[in-house]
Amino acid sequence: MSGLEQRCSANRHPAPQSASQVAYNVALTIGSEMLKKAGRVGFIMSLIRDLRVALHSFLRTPGLALAVILPLALGVGANASLR
């Protein structure tokens, strides 16, 4: 039997998993799902923190905020009106 035939026959009849292997796979799946959810929450918390810092810095220097926001708003408005 060649190596390819051995691998193909091994893939047709996978060995049964022990209970500990099944439990490990389930725990791994649950853990990865929890990390995905935590990543979303972490992203939202980070976004809120960044917005608070930006708002605080804009309130500390309102002239700079106006100098940044006004040209940006005018540029977006001009671009939207041309389309």
Describe this structure in words.
The protein is mostly helical and 83 residues long. The protein has one domain. It has 3 helices and no strands. The radius of gyration is 28 Å and the shape is elongated. The model has no long low-confidence stretch (mean pLDDT 77).
Return the structural class.
mainly alpha
Number of strands: 0
- Poorly predicted runs of 5 or more residues: none
Helix tally equals 3
Reading the helices and strands in chain order gives HHH
The major beta sheet can be summarized as: none
Strand percent estimate: under 5%
The radius of gyration over CA amounts to 28 Å
Tell me, briefly, the overall form.
elongated
In total, the number of domains comes to 1
Helix content: over 70%
Question: Which structural traits does this protein have?
Answer:
mainly alpha; elongated; 3 helices; single chain; 83 residues
List the helices and strands and how they pair.
Layout: H1 3-12, H2 19-60, H3 62-82
The gist of it:
With 83 residues, the chain is mostly helical.
